[in-house]
Write a structure and sequence with these properties.
It is built from two helices and five strands, in the order αβββαββ. The protein is α+β, with helices and mostly antiparallel strands and about 120 residues long. The longest helix has 17 residues. The relative contact order is 0.24.
Length: about 120
């Protein structure tokens, strides 16, 4: 599995940096964002180091589908039942801050800090 030893998310996947995990399996890790925009704000990341959505190809279709399909289940489990938002920032102009593909899933009662 590809990883970048300098990537903060790869370090979280490797257990070198602690996180408040919500879900984990062989391909995905989900944890609470340390700077949440909403009452519930988790990040869904592939364990495979993929820098941005630009690097995704047909071979990643199932992985992306699993990421998206997992969101409603986790939101329900976390008590979010009135809607949520998903967001993938891509590249500098897309305001991607961590160079490891990740999906924000945010929900809970408004007003939110951002978004």
């Amino acid at each position: 599995m590809s990883h970048d030893p300098n990537c903060i998310f790869c370090k979280i996947v490797a257990g070198k940096i602690p996180s408040k995990k919500v879900f984990e399996d062989e391909e995905l890790l989900v944890f609470h964002d340390i700077h949440p925009w909403a009452p519930v704000h988790v990040l869904v990341i592939p364990k495979l180091h993929i820098v941005t959505l630009y690097e995704v190809g047909p071979e990643h279709a199932a992985l992306l589908g699993r990421m998206l399909a997992l969101a409603p289940r986790l939101m329900r489990e976390l008590g979010v039942v009135n809607g949520f938002r998903t967001l993938i920032n891509t590249g500098e102009d897309g305001r991607q801050e961590v160079q490891h593909l990740h999906m924000h899933v945010m929900g809970g009662p408004r007003p939110w800090l951002k978004g």
